[in-house]
Each structure stands twice: as structure tokens, then as C-alpha cells.
Write a structure and sequence with these properties.
318 residues; mainly alpha; 0% strand; globular
Length: 318
């Protein structure tokens, strides 16, 4: 609905040229800024409100009573059923941290969420068939579980920006007695985080809009096809500067595959675009130190590269 409104304003109300790349980039920018800021406010306010009913100690006790992999698996499954891009999933990532959810488990969510969603599964089934789609979903979840588990084991909480998370990044236990105070807490928390993040979001989306509309498919295909044995890591690296959801990038992955690029290489490129975008890194910089972003991107990129090579090996049987 939001996209329809933005398109109407651009192409009907202001009569801008829909074939112009500048106009397309501006359309992309306006739509994504409104979407991400709106989602940021709404999700943090709602989750903040819900958290006033849930004891932090109970969350910690539940997680402590389960095997670590259970928490990572649950976070990855939740990520798979939420239709968010990498930037849009950051509000939930921050809210989970404030609720006392371990950092590694929140990473499992933010990694899986942009890689898998229900409409991508439907599109992949139409383009690639049942077996490839199932394998993609399974390995997408495994990337989130394994990467989140490794990141959690490294104990990187000290690399979070404390001014965004508070003097202690974990949620402080406060007692609320009425609905109004609970709603006020959620809204105030959303406003507070938006004040700290909005400039980073605007810059990130501006970069993403330019790259999204000015980097041609032919250039991507030409670069990947020249990679030889290193096509998979090259595809992952090429995907980082580009910003878009898996569903939006899927047609490009299909074109690459049809042009002779191995299946795993095409899918690794698609996953990198959706889960390791430069705009995501810019927004996360407000919540994390550069070292943590580098470790996060490095581990996830390695998991994608391994997955890409594995899909290339299995391509004949899939």
C-alpha cells in the first residue's frame, strides 16, 4: 500500500519520468526511509509495551534452561517467518537485546530474517522447483543458527554501543501498574531509539538507492563469470554494496543461473545482497562498534561461501 502511494505521488501527482534512474532512486529512497522509520517506531513501541508484561528474569531463566542451540534455532525460525529485509529487521534485533536475549541468539534472527520469508519461498518454488527451494530454506536457517552460535560463543557484548543500549544494554526490570504507563514506555523507547538512528538510516538508504538503480545486471554477471574458482566469494563480496530483499534480487539470481553461473554462486550472491548489505552495516554502526560489524559480516560471509560451494557441488542432483 505504501509503495502504491509513493508511486502515485511520484508518477501521477508530480508527473515524474518513471524511466529515469534518478527518479527511480528517489522513489526507492523515499519509500524505504518511510518504511524503515515507520517499522522501527511501530515494532519497538509494540515490543516495548509487551516487555512491560514479561519479566526479564523469566526470559533469561527460560533461555538458561534450554540448550543454546534451541534458542538459536527458535530465533532463526522466527526470522524465517518474518518478512523483513536486513534494515527492517534491526528494530526487532535492538528490542531483543533490550529484553535480555543473548547477543548470539539475536544475531541468529537478524541473519535469517532477510534470507528467508514466505513470499521468497513461493517465488523460488516457481523459478527453481521444490528440491532447490527446500535445500535453500534449510541452509538459510542453518546459516543463522551456526553463525549466531559462533558469534554468541565469542562473547562480543562489550562491542555494543552503550549509549544506544543504555548504561547496561540489557532491559531493566520495572514494575508497571496501568495500561497508560505501559503504552507510554513503549512509545518513549521507540522515540528515543529513532532519535539516535534516523540520520544513519537516511544515509544508508540513500547509498542503497543509488547502488540499487545504477549497478547493471550485465556488470554483475561479467564480474562473477571471471572469478574462476573464486566465483562464490567474489559473488558474496559483490552483493554487499547492493541493497535489496531476497525477493527483489531473486530475478537477478535467476538471470545469472540461466547465463551459466553455477547455482550456488547465484544463490550466495542473493543471500549476500539481502543479509550483508552496506546500508545495514551503516545502521548497525550506531548500535555496534566497527570491530563487531566486521566480525559479524565476516562469519556470515564465510557461512554463505561454504553454502554456495556446497550448492555448486550438489547442483547435479538438485
Amino acid at each position: 500500500m505504501l509503495q502504491v502511494i509513493v508511486d502515485f505521488c511520484f508518477y501521477n501527482f508530480f508527473s515524474l519520468d518513471s524511466s529515469s534512474k534518478i527518479v527511480q532512486s528517489l522513489n526507492f529512497f523515499v519509500y524505504d526511509v518511510i518504511k524503515i522509520l515507520g517499522l522501527l517506531f511501530f515494532m519497538i513501541a509494540i515490543i516495548g509495551f509487551i516487555r512491560t508484561y514479561v519479566s526479564q528474569e523469566k526470559i533469561r531463566d527460560w533461555l538458561a534452561s534450554k540448550h543454546k542451540l534451541v534458542g538459536h534455532f527458535a530465533a532463526s525460525i522466527f526470522g524465517a517467518i518474518t518478512p523483513f529485509c536486513s534494515c527492517s529487521s534491526i528494530p526487532l534485533f535492538l528490542s531483543f537485546l533490550k529484553a535480555g536475549v543473548p547477543l548470539g541468539i539475536t544475531f541468529s534472527f537478524i541473519i535469517t530474517s532477510p534470507i528467508i520469508n514466505e513470499y521468497l519461498v513461493v517465488l523460488m518454488f516457481g523459478f527453481f522447483g521444490f528440491k532447490i527451494t527446500i535445500f535453500y530454506v534449510v541452509f538459510g536457517i542453518l546459516i543463522g543458527v551456526v553463525s549466531g552460535f559462533v558469534l554468541g560463543a565469542l562473547k562480543l557484548e562489550g562491542l555494543l554501543e552503550k549509549d544506544l543500549m543504555g548504561s547496561d544494554y540489557k532491559y531493566r526490570e520495572v514494575k508497571y501498574t496501568d495500561l497508560g504507563s505501559r503504552l507510554k514506555y513503549g512509545v518513549n523507547e521507540a522515540v528515543d531509539i529513532i532519535k539516535k538512528l534516523w540520520k544513519w538510516i537516511v544515509v544508508a538508504v540513500a547509498i542503497g538507492a543509488l547502488v540499487h538503480n545504477y549497478v547493471p545486471e550485465v556488470f554483475i554477471q561479467g564480474m562473477i563469470s571471471k572469478g574462476g574458482i573464486f566465483t562464490v566469494p567474489l559473488a558474496v563480496l559483490l552483493g554487499v554494496p547492493i541493497y535489496g530483499s531476497c525477493a527483489a534480487i531473486l530475478p537477478i539470481a535467476v538471470v545469472l543461473f540461466n547465463k551459466g553461473i553455477p547455482l550456488g554462486t547465484a544463490l550466495a550472491f542473493m543471500m549476500s545482497v539481502s543479509a550483508l548489505s552496506l546500508p545495514e552495516a551503516i545502521i548497525l554502526r550506531r548500535a555496534m562498534k566497527l570491530k563487531l560489524i566486521g566480525i559479524f559480516f565476516g562469519i556470515v560471509a564465510l557461512a554463505m561461501i561454504v553454502t554456495g560451494y556446497l550448492f555448486n557441488v550438489l547442483q547435479g542432483v538438485l
